[in-house]
Amino acid sequence: MIGDGVATIGPWWWVIGGLVLLGLEVLLPATYFLWFGIAAIVVGAVSIVVDVTWQVQVIAFVVLAVVLVILGRRFFANRHRGESSAPINRRSEGFIGQSFVLMEPIVNGSGRIRAGDTTWRVTGPDAASGRTVRVVTVDGPLLHVEVLPESQGRDDHP
């Protein structure tokens, strides 16, 4: 009985089911339904071209879904590892090793630089405005800098 009902499911049901799964993927965060949706669409497309039994379609769907999940997880895991080491909430860490020109002189260990569209407080040895400094460490929003010799020019942002 159940076999007869399942046997009437044609290739277009796979395609429609895959599109529904992809639609759910758009609505839900994370990649839960993406791989199953792609597997269903592929099985449906192959079933349209090649006449196969429903048992082969189900087995192909399961195998393809498992393979796509494994490959997808590996692909996205590698992409996340390659992202910047300074996320948006720790933006100052991205400045380590970069050189900037002092916007305000460092007096009594405190001054300012401009990095991108933001002015940052810096601490380091006293230096005149216009001197080039390099960020060596960060402490939250405070950048610890070293003054570069006059012969070394800036190698980064204004």
Describe the SSE topology.
Layout: H1 2-7, H2 11-27, H3 34-49, H4 54-81, E1 99-107, E2 110-115, E3 118-123, E4 132-139, E5 142-147
Parallel strand pairs: 3-5
Antiparallel strand pairs: 1-2, 1-4, 2-3, 4-5
Helix pairs in contact: 2-3, 3-4
Verbal overview:
With 158 residues, this protein is α+β, with helices and mostly antiparallel strands. The chain folds into two domains: 2-81, no CATH class; 88-147, OB fold (Dihydrolipoamide Acetyltransferase, E2P). The chain has four helices and five strands; from the N terminus they run H-H-H-H-E-E-E-E-E. It has helices at 2-7, 11-27, 34-49, 54-81, and strands at 99-107, 110-115, 118-123, 132-139, 142-147. A five-stranded mixed beta barrel has the order 1-2-3-5-4. Strand 4 and strand 5 (142-147) form a beta hairpin. The chain is rod-shaped, with a radius of gyration of 29 Å. Mean pLDDT is 83; it is low at 154-158.
Concise structural overview:
The protein is an alpha+beta fold and 158 residues long. The protein contains four helices and five strands; from the N terminus they run ααααβββββ. A hairpin with a 2-residue loop joins β2 (110-115) and β3.
Write the H/E string, N to C: HHHHEEEEE
The coarse overall form would be: rod-shaped
Radius of gyration: 29 Å
Taking strands numbered 1, 2, ... along the chain, how are they ordered across the largest sheet?
Answer: 1-2-3-5-4
How much β-strand is present in the residues?
A: 15-25%
How many β-strand runs?
5
State the domain count.
2
- Low-confidence spans: 154-158
Output the structural class: alpha+beta
* Most strands sheet: 5 strands, mixed, barrel
Determine the fraction of residues in helical runs and give it as a percent range: 40-55%
Calculate the terminal CA-CA distance, rounded to whole Å. Answer: 75 Å
